[in-house]
Specification:
Length: about 240
């Protein structure tokens, strides 16, 4: 079985006008072996390399070992993609910084990184894929960049975020993007073309209401969101003020 890691995926794909995407494939067993045992077959293509114990393919960060005990990590300059599952289940990392060259964070890239408390995202980040930060319980604050286009399904599910601002550049928010998290306030700085189901849901029943702030002049957008969250405990505030 092989895991396909997307190297180039235009944001148009998420908007429904998908263009051709270049991809490479690595045997899943190789990646899992490297992530869990920090070993890798010697007969790999020249495009693969290991730097500071981390596996790369050209401008893609492919795998960061689960057992790596560094508390901080800076993604090298020039890296454009954080591969799917790249950091998953590393429980030592507390802080990650990304250069502005990064444009996409892959599926479940930081899933299960329970110690991760501080992430500095690339200013040019365009896509946060499905489950990218699920189960990051220690991550209570994150600033989304102004170039961001899409937030995937369950991207920030089951984690410690208290408040989030969705930049006006965002056009896609997937199903359950902030589900079962600690989010109490969501600020939309503009209108999103697609908002999935159950994007914002609290832990269990009987919890505090979630406040959703939207631009006061976008009445139709408010009505659209209210239909999605009718009787869900979400309170809408028709204002962009904070």
């Amino acid at each position: 079985m092989k895991r396909f890691i997307v190297v180039l995926m235009t944001v148009a794909c998420l908007a429904g006008a998908c263009t051709q995407a270049a991809a490479f494939e690595i045997p899943e067993a190789w990646i899992d072996q490297y992530r869990t045992e920090e070993t890798f077959p010697a007969d790999i293509a020249a495009e693969y390399y290991i730097q500071d114990g981390v596996l790369f393919f050209n401008d893609v960060l492919v795998a960061y070992p689960e057992s790596k005990t560094d508390r901080e990590y800076a993604v090298p300059e020039g890296i454009r993609y954080i591969g799917e599952y790249a950091f998953m289940y590393n429980r030592s990392l507390e802080r990650v910084t990304m250069p502005d060259s990064v444009i996409k964070i892959g599926r479940s890239a930081f899933g299960g990184c329970t110690a991760l408390a501080d992430v500095q995202l690339s200013a040019n980040l365009q896509v946060i894929d499905s489950g990218a930060f699920w189960n990051c319980y220690a991550l209570e604050n994150i600033t989304l960049p102004m170039q961001l286009y899409a937030i995937g399904e369950q991207a920030f599910a089951e984690m410690g975020l208290k408040e989030i601002t969705i930049p006006a550049s965002v056009r896609y928010v997937g199903d359950e993007a902030f589900a079962l998290s600690s989010v109490l306030k969501v600020h939309f700085e503009g209108c999103v073309d697609y908002v999935g189901i159950c994007v914002i849901t609290p832990y269990g029943q009987g919890g505090p209401n979630i406040e959703v702030f939207v631009p006061s002049f976008e009445y139709a957008y408010v009505e659209q969101l209210q239909e999605k969250y009718e009787n869900s405990g979400v309170a809408f505030c028709e204002t962009g003020d904070r």
